Amino acid sequence: MTRKSNAAPQATEAARGAGKPGAARERVIKKYPNRRLYDTQSSAYITLAEVRHLVMNREHFVVRDAKSGEDLTRSILLQIILEEEAGGAPMFTEAMLANIIRFYGHAMQGFMGTYLEKNIQAFMDIQAKLAEQSSSVSPEMWTQFMRMQSPLMQGMMGNYLEQSKTMFLQMQEQMTRQTEQMLGAFGIKR
């Protein structure tokens, strides 16, 4: 990593966090036109792999264009996903990616994002509970446990699927209500 002194931007970043009661100073990473990323907290250039490390450590950060100040965080996170997907063991199938693409511009686009976010959070909650309950289990025992597909695991996945179904139904009901309200505003009754 190349170290670079940059006192003025750091003072500006510190000022952004000031005045917000109880707000922790936001970690800012600047993206320069040469595609390099500069971490204002460590005063050093960092790689995409190091940004991934921040994500894995659940550190809150924002990536901003060095010239315009535009928020590029989503773009950088998508780059990390792209690298992970190309890295050998992809998480998304082609069919899943195609289905996600089909939702862009669709009336359900906003709902789909919320639905996916809630489902991933529910899955992470299940994972955290399993990790908490199995803190004394060795990796070998964990592997055997996963192979057996024990009733506990099936029950937890069943609960997850039930939560997912409930969220989808709620989303569908909300869309129906909004559609009826919108049609009612135009004087159209269903």
Question: What tags apply to this protein structure?
Answer:
7 helices; four-stranded mixed beta sheet; alpha+beta; single chain; 2 domains; disordered N terminus; 190 residues
Task: Give the helix/strand layout.
Elements lengths: L6 H11 L9 E5 L5 E3 L4 E3 L1 H9 L4 E5 L7 H14 L7 H10 L5 H25 L5 H10 L2 H35 L5
Hey, roughly how much beta strand do the residues contain? Answer: 5-15%
Oligomeric state of the chains present here? single chain
Count the E strands.
4
Uncertain runs are 1-23
Query: What is the makeup of the main sheet?
Result: 4 strands, mixed
Shape: flat
Number of domains: 2
Radius of gyration: 22 Å
What does this structure look like?
Helices cover 60% and strands 8% of the residues. It is of the alpha+beta class. The chain has two domains: 7-86, no CATH class; 94-185, no CATH class. Mean pLDDT is 78; it is low at 1-23.
Quick take:
The protein is of the alpha+beta class and 190 residues long. It contains 7 helices and 4 strands.
